[in-house]
Amino acid sequence: MSLNAKSFIIDLLLASGGQTLSIKQLxxxxxxxxxxxxNTRVAVTRLCQEEMIESVARGQYKLTAxxxxxxxxxxxxxxxxxxxxxxxxxxxxxxTTSLGRTDRTALxxxxxxxxxxxxxxLETGFFVRxxxxxxxxxELKTELTQxxxxxxxxxxxxxxxxxxxxxxxxxxxxxxxxxxRYEKYSVQLKQWLTHxxxxxxxxxxxxxxxxxxxxxxxxxxxxxxxxxxxxTASREDFFQAVLQLDHIGQETWRKLNQxxxx
Length: 262
Description:
This protein is of the alpha+beta class.
């Protein structure tokens, strides 16, 4: 995953727990990741223009209300561990054929939102996923529309498909790749966690940030498929390791902000 000054500043402000950070702190922190002072200052200016951050005093910045919804998803990422239930072999489906496909921007946004929630397109304008999310249909509709899905999209629960379609549905996700990812990163993160306490604070900050960006993104975009489609125990091991890394990383950056970057 590429690293740029804008994304780093947003992540650092999220890690600060809502505290205001000075431009000096932002520049010093970015330097740890080899981001130049000029790039950091330009990024601050652009983020202000985009209303993602705001200046509350001369040289002092915090996240804006416009960043709160996205920030809430990241800050409360551990909630994803509690968003699934036992699979009843039923499916959730979203029908979007009435929305049209000529507006490419709207189409891309719609497909991105559905993919992020684990849906895959079975036929044009018809998206499905296992009904194992711990949400009612109304709650799911609310969540999807808050993310930007058109209110006219039709959500439904499907009790069964014919055998041929059922087989086709099972191929919509690369479950082998998901299982390999869970195992790979669980091993990598557990090894890192074993040695984290012996690392220099600056190295700990750098590595936790870079490794966290990669693995947290994977966790947030995981389709949360049920067993037997994926190894759910392996996924939970991966998620727990990510949350441990995230906790260490946030505490490390907070301490650096307080003790070394002022």
